[in-house]
Structure formats: structure tokens, C-alpha cells
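S1.2 Input.
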Amino acid sequence: EVQLQASGGGLVQPGGSLRLSCAASGFTVSTSVMGWFRQAPGKAREFVAAIRWSDGRTYYADSVKDRFTISRDSAKNTVFLQMNGLKPEDTGVYYCHGVYRVGFTNFDHWGQGTLVTVSS
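S1.3 Output.
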């Protein structure tokens, strides 16, 4: 069974930091691109960051570039999102997402969300 288990959300003051984790299981992570999306109240889900597992290449939304860092731990099949300099507009539910390959077919899977609230 494919699973993406996200954790690490919480309440933080503006300017603070949080680290989100997403533990993957049930598929070969070396074939994957893993990422984070977020959804603020009343808004559409949006892309935040992604990492290509095979070579570590990273991708970021302009709104988080230079503040957020995505990384992976191959020994733990886990992706991290280090969030620094958090702003109130970063508030939302953060979802882990994975695109992985089985044979010649790509599949994708969403994890459950973890809530991040940035407020004083």
C-alpha cells in the first residue's frame, strides 16, 4: 500500500521556523518526484516545492524561494520541508505529494495534510 505520512505542522509566530516531514512507503522512491502543496482557507491548492529523488534537483514556488528548503533522506525514505522566515500568508494545510513510476507508468499519491498556522 502506498502511503505518504506527513507531520510537523503547528502554530508559529511570524518570522519563525518549522520543519515538515513526509515519510514514504509502498513504492520505489528513487523513481519519484516528491513535493509539497498547500491550501489556504478559501483558496485553491498551490505548489510549494518539489525534489527529484534521483539527483536531488529542487523546484520552488517564487513565493517561498530563499525561505523554504526541500530535502530528502534516502535511508529513511523521507522528504523534509524546512520553512524559515514564515509569514502569515504561509498559513494553510500542507500536503505531501509523490509521483512515482512503476514500469512505464507514472502514478501519483497524496498524503494527509498537516496544518501550519503563522500568527502572533
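S1.4 Remarks. The mean pLDDT is 95.
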